[in-house]
Each structure stands twice: as C-alpha cells, then as structure tokens.
Amino acid sequence: MKESRLSNIWFINLGVLLIALLLVAKLGYLQIMHGEVYRDKADAQYLIPSNGFDRGQIFFQEKSGRTIAAATVVPDYTLAIDPSKIVDKQGLADKLLAFIKFDRADFIARASHVGSQYEEIAKHLNEDEITGVQSLHAKGVILKKDKKRFYPGIKAAAQVLGFVGSNGETVAGRYGLEKYYNDTLTREGTGGSTSFFADLFLKPGAAILSDRAKQGDIVTTIEPTVQGFLERVLQQDVLEKYKAASASGIIMDPVTGAIYAMGTAPAFDPNNFSKEKDASVYSNPLVDGIYEMGSIVKPLTMAAGLDAGVVTAQTTYDDKGFLIINKKRISNYDGRGRGVVPMQIILNDSLNTGAVFVMNKLGKDSFRNYMKAFGLGEETGIDLPNEGVGNIKNLESPRDIEYATASFGQGISMTPIETIRALAALGNGGLLVTPHVVARTEYGLAPAQNFVANPGKQVIKKETSTEITRMLTEVVDKALMGGTLKMQHYSIAAKTGTAQLVEDGGYSESDYLHTFFGYFPSNNPRFIVFLAVKNPRGEKYASHTLSLPFMQIAKFLINYYDIPPDR
Questions:
Q1: CATH number of the domain encompassing residue 419
Q2: Which of 161, 265, 337, 367 is 20–30 Å from 286 (CA)?
Q3: Which domain holds residue 2?
Q4: What's the pLDDT tens digit per position in 226-265?
C-alpha cells in the first residue's frame, strides 16, 4: 500500500510540474508573440476594435544580415460619429477640423441623419490625428481601430512581394510572396477567446505549444540597397530613356541561386494597388513571362558544342553571311559574311550562321538533349507563384529549320528566371542551381527553417564552364561596344541579345525584346545579372540599350560588396 501511495504522490507531483511548465511556456508565448493583442485590448478603453486582422511579416535582408520590414501590419484608424448623441453639429465639426481634414458640409449632413447611430467621416487617420480627437472628449465621436497590411518600401520589389486583398469572402495574399507563402503568413484565430485552461482540456499538451507551428515570418534574400539601385537603373536609364513598354532585371548569386534583387518597371504601390488601372502590372514577368530570348542563347549552344567535343575555340567555319535551310533564309544581323573565322568570332559578332554551324556539329538529338539539360522547357522551382514554363516544342520537330533558329534563340521561348538559371551554369562550374527569394522562415520560439538548396545538377563539365567563361570574357574585353567597357582590374563575362517579339502568330516588324546577361568576376562569379527591355525606342540593338545600365550595376555591386580585383 505504501508503495502504491508513494507512486500516486509522484504521479500527482509530476502532473503539477507539467501543468506549471505549460503555464510558464504559455505565458511567455503570449507575452512575446501576442503582446500586441493585449495592447489592443487596452486601447479598447477609448477605441472600438474592429477587424482583428493580423499577418506574419516579410523582411528584406541587408548584406550585414540585419533585417528590415518589407511587409508588416500597422494600426489603421477610422473616425465615425453617432448622430443620436451629437447636440452641436457645427461646433463639433469645427473642433474636429482642427485635427482632421474632411468635408464640413458632408459632416453636417451625416450628423443630421435621424435614426442613424454610425456614420463614417474619415479613414486612415494617423497617431497625431487620433491623439487630437481623443483630447476633445466629445460625445458622439467614435474612433475605430483596425489593422492593415503596410509596405514600408512603397514600390520596392512590388512584384516580388505582391499584396493582400479580398475576393469578397477571404483576405489573403494575391500575388508574389504574399500568395506563395500565404499559409505561413496567415494568422488563424487571432480574434479567438479560447483560454489556455480550456486548451488544457481540449488539446494535448504538445498541441498547445505547436498549434501555430506553421505560422511564421519570411526573411528574404532581397538586399534592399541592391534592390533600390536596380530599380532606379531600370526606371531612369532604361524605361524612361528609351520610352520602353517595360524594363526588368534580376541579380542573383550564380552559385547558390539566392536572388539579391528582382524588379520590373513600371511597378506599383502595394499599399494602394486598387488604384492601378492595368491589373497586369501586379504580375511578375520575370517569373511568369515567356519570351524568345535571342542571342543570349548562343553561349548555351556554344557551351554544348564545347562540352560534347564537337568544336573548340580554335575550330573555324566559313561564314557567308546567310544560310538556306528548308527553303528559309537565315542571315546574320547585318547580312554580312566574315569568311573563315574561329568560334570566338561567333560570340564576338553574334553570328546566327555560326550558332547554326555549332548546332549542326552537335546534331539535332544532342542539341535537344543539352537544351533540356540546361532546364529549358521546365519550371525552376522558384518560390514565387504562377511560374511559367518555356516552350521548346520546336525541338521535337523533324524540320532542320526549327533547330537552326533555336540555336540563336528564336523559335523557342523561356521565362527570364529559367534563362538566368541556365546561363548561371556557364559560370558556376556547370551546375543547375535553384533560384530562390526566401532565405528562411522564422517561427517565433521554434527553430527557424533555412532554405536548403538541392545539390545542383551537373549539366556541363567544369572544364567547359571555364572555357565558355574565357570566351565570354573576351566578348566584353574586345567586342562589346568596341572593347570600351573592359575593366582593367575586374573580368566580366557577358553577352547581349535582340529578338523579334511574337504577335498574332508571327514576328513583329517593329517590336523587339532586348536582353543582356553577365557574370563577374568571371572565374569566380559572385553575381549574375539579367536585364531585359521590351520595345525600346531609338535603338535597334541590346548592346546600345543595356550595356551601360549593366556596367552601372556591375560597378555598384563591386564597390558595395567590396569585391577584390581578379586581374
């Protein structure tokens, strides 16, 4: 009996200890994670709480590792009145106008509504306005405290972040990270009243501490200073300068796939997204847009030829300036032949006939296999919604012409994110990485979940990566803008592209997509940059529209990250 009684006492003591630990954990959790909720309840002494909206935060991450808010929740106040309690309408209007701007005549009319007990006067009041109204201690005045989603950076990375909106039934993320990570950012039951003691009876102990396990905050790889610089260049030096339809760019680590910046101009303000007349501005063309990329595909073709051993940098061919394939004429951009030239000149002068020569040396099957290995025609797996998939169906055609045009970037299409991933393999040793914009998800008291990339698939040999990088570096040093962009102490590998845009099933005679990519320092790249401009006016080729903006970005990144010289 003694042993049984002693066992019962130990069991009771253990139960009391467990309950005490749960109480302490719950109190700590409430103080740390939900202090705002209780501050709201304190505010209710003089404010009417309303929507109970709450949502996880999204952060940018500076190069130092410090995070700054990109999307957060802030108080939002509304001024309303109860006409049944107002005696001096004109006097109250004049007192309120000392702190808030509104239409006085409309106020008098609303204050005169017989039988009404609630009329809204002004929305989105700031803290100073609220303090002023409260100081009046006026009867019939109602202050309603809501919460709203707020984006401190205004337009910064707007298409990456997205926004929160209602479809009439639910409030949720509608684009960008807000949509992709909606389940993580959503806060369930923040307005609930279930007590901890009720939870003890209704839930297992572990569930009490983990019922919000999936609710977290997002820390992105977006570096705010880099993002801001990219967006200024796109807006001022590309979109406005060339009166273009749009300009966009990506800055990525070619080794890890982490995206430092991703932007499109024109952008939008997610704080006032409903004011946009064209809803297409909400989407991210760098992820869901599908385009024929033009000559920036030529380095992929050349790398495939080098990797398969069918050409070397010293291999030559006779360039006559044009080819006839399946009764179709393919010409160089200037129609001019260069005679017998080595493979380097194909990249230096961006020769269509040369790309076709390399493709023919590979053979259609091998060429197709390499393009698929580079990830063309498939999703990258980037953590953003609505990712598009390129179209390389022409590489299943029996016709030679489809393979010929594909070798220089026409007739096949891809997304910009698909493109930069493929091109990154040229400089990172031949690996196909996973592009991503989230570094980690933080779960309050629980451990953070860091992004862990899958090991990159080897798509070309490391030796091939070294050789194609050397060739692309020579493009910058000797050919791009006549070699005037060469940096004395830093090597840069790059290539331009110009492609006709497809409209109504055919190629436009007036609309073009200019593209540019480059990575640096060439032999140990820290950054790869992709730029695109749609329908620029006044310049025909990407070398003229995007070379200087690219060099601005490259020099900024070298200085900002204090990259040591490599030559």
A1: 3.40.710.10
A2: 367
A3: 1-33
A4: 999 999 999 999 999 999 999 999 999 999 999 999 999 9
